[in-house]
Amino acid sequence: MKRYSLLITLLSITAAFLLSGCSVLAALQPTATVTPSPTFTPTLPPPTPTPTPTEVPYFVEATVFSGELQVPILIYHRFIPDFDGETTSMKMQYSEFKRELQALYDAGFSLISLKSWIEGTFIVPEGRKPLIITMDDAWFSDQIYINDDGTPSEYSAIGIMWKFANEHPEFGFNATLFAIMGDKYYGDILLANQQRFIVSDGNAWKDKLGNTMVWALENGIEVGNHTFLHPRLSEVKDNADIQYQLSQNDYYARTFLERVGRSDLYEKMDNIIALPEGKWPETQSGKNVILNYINPEGKSVMAVMEAYNMDAVQFTPSFFSEGFNPYAIPRITASPYFVNYIVENKDLLPTAQVCKLGPLHEEMANDQATLAAKVEEAVASGVCLEGVYHVNGFIFFVKDGTLSVHSTPPADLPALAETATSMP
Fold first, then answer.
1. Fewest CB atoms less than 10 Å from the CB: which of 44, 89, 173, 275?
2. Can you say whether the dihedral through the CA atoms of 158, 163, 165, 168 is positive or negative?
3. Taking a C-beta distance cutoff of 8 angstroms, is the pair 417, 392 a contact?
4. Tens of pLDDT along 79-110?
5. Over 60: is that where the pLDDT of 249 sits?
6. What is the pLDDT of residue 141?
7. What's the Cα-to-Cα distance from 337 to each of 109, 129, 234, 279, 331, rounded to whole Å?
8. Residue 329 CB contacts under 8 Å (≥ 6 apart), including other chains
9. pLDDT at 311
10. Over 50: is that where the pLDDT of 424 sits?
11. Can you tell me the mean pLDDT for 288-299?
12. Confidence band (pLDDT; 50, 70, 90) for 44?
């Protein structure tokens, strides 16, 4: 019986092996160790070095005047409507004045102040030529009259210039009025339909004149001394009378500013004298009274306007010219003939040019020594001509290979960095 049971057990085991196939054998074999494939690590290129930025050459622009430096100084007197007569040496039609402004603008002229020419600080835009306009025998309403809205009237010469300058900004707006304070009232009422001015009753004209002077001094108009009563100084024998003509004129002018509460403008009254009819006193002592005259603010005589030049054109040399004499400055009586002459001979007068100075470091663009060296380099290399150089508030003068510093920027003003440019 035991043998039988053992046989049955063996047969059962054998059957189980046959039914499971090789899986049992495989299960009894040892498990193989799986070796993982190596992970691929990409090789990165070396880092690209940061390039050093290329320095862009830095230049500054200088405005240059070269050649013979001279200017036409025009002198006007009164102005009239076209229906009120013909243009003469003393009175000019409004239409003729407009024509002359247009002709001078078209010829490339731009206005500068008389003071800037005397001091050698004048400048105009590139391609333009300097021009000075003066008016004698002020104050007449046909020369300057201020409307109630604060603008100069179109029935006055200054108003015509003001409008023209706003329409042609490159022309600029400057003029010098030489005043005679003791010989007239001021027309304070405009009759627009008649293009005329009349004087009202009382003292209203004094307030009007005072406010007109304020507008002028605050808007680019210089005021000079043309004596109190316009005597012919060659016939004045007493030196005290010459002194009176100058000092009384200055004193009286300031009373009008004081009347309207603007005595602060006294300092704008420069000491420039226009001789009546362009004539000096006969004696040297009489001439010395003029040359040594001190105005109420303690200013010495800056310049004396001399001849009218009614028979020939004489241009005025500059501060930088060998023949410059501030005490004998010629002017040209404005007329159609002389203005046409100036236009036709414009090439005799200097034109503002631009010279690029550099390269230099930007932080040195306002350094006097650096700019002077660059001016010298430009002239020596032939890139730019000798002459007057305006650059970043400095004025240099180069003549015969020698550079001098004429003026530097005022201490209270920054140098004009906007004149600097970078070249591509």
1. 44
2. negative
3. yes
4. 999 999 999 999 999 999 999 999 999 999 99
5. yes
6. 98
7. 17, 20, 29, 24, 15
8. 73, 118, 303, 304, 305, 306, 316
9. 73
10. no
11. 98
12. low
**Containing H/E element for 146?**
none
The chain-wide mean pLDDT, for the chain, equals 89
Q: pLDDT tens for residues 120-168?
A: 999 999 999 999 999 999 999 999 999 999 999 999 999 999 999 999 9
**In Å, how far are 73, 173, 371 from 352, measured between CA atoms?**
18, 18, 19
Residue 224's beta-bridge partner residues? 178
The three-class DSSP label of residue 398 is: strand
Whole-number pLDDT of residue 313: 85
H or E stretch including 15? helix 2-20
The alpha-helical segments, DSSP class H, found in 292-367 are 336-344
Cα distances (angstroms) measured from residue 384 to each of 128, 379, 380, 387, 421 = 17, 5, 8, 9, 17
* 3-class secondary structure, 137: strand
Q: Which residues pair with 91 in a beta bridge?
A: 78
> What's the Cα-to-Cα distance from 96 to each of 30, 81, 92, 169, 192, rounded to whole Å?
124, 10, 7, 21, 19
Residue 160: its H or E element = helix 157-167
Query: How far is 280 from 219, CA to CA, in rounded Å?
Result: 31
Question: Which tokens go with 306?
Answer: 């001399």
Residues 6+ apart with CB under 8 A from 246: 225, 227, 228, 273, 289, 290, 293
Under the banding of pLDDT at 50, 70 and 90, the label for residue 27 is: very low
* Cα–Cα distance for residue pair 187/184, rounded to 1 Å: 9
Length of the chain: 424
| DSSP letters for 192-209 | TTTTEEEPPSTTHHHHHH
**153 touches 171 (CB < 8 A):** no
In whole angstroms, how far apart are CA 10 and each of 1, 16, 28? 15, 10, 19
Token pair of 76, please?
């006007």
Strands annotated E in 192-309: 196-198, 221-225, 272-274, 303-305
With b meaning 16 or more CB within 10 Å and e meaning fewer, what string describes 21-50?
A: eeeeeeeeeeeeeeeeeeeeeeeeeeeeee
- Give the residue-averaged pLDDT of 207-229: 98
Find tokens 């010629």 and name the residue: 330
φ, ψ for residue 221, nearest 5 deg: -100, 125
